[in-house]
Amino acid sequence: MTEFGLKTAWLDGKLQASTAIYQINQKNTLYPAPTADNADLMEQIGKERSKGIEFDIQGQILPHWSVIASYAYNDAKITEGGNNEELNRQKPNAPQNTANIWTRFSIPSGKAKGLGIGVGANYVDKRNLSLNQNQTIPSYSLLNAALYYTIGKVQLQANFNNITNKTHWVGGYDYIRLFPGALRNLLFTLGYTF
Question: Start and end of every TonB-dependent receptor-like beta-barrel domain (predicted)?
Answer without folding.
Answer: 3-163
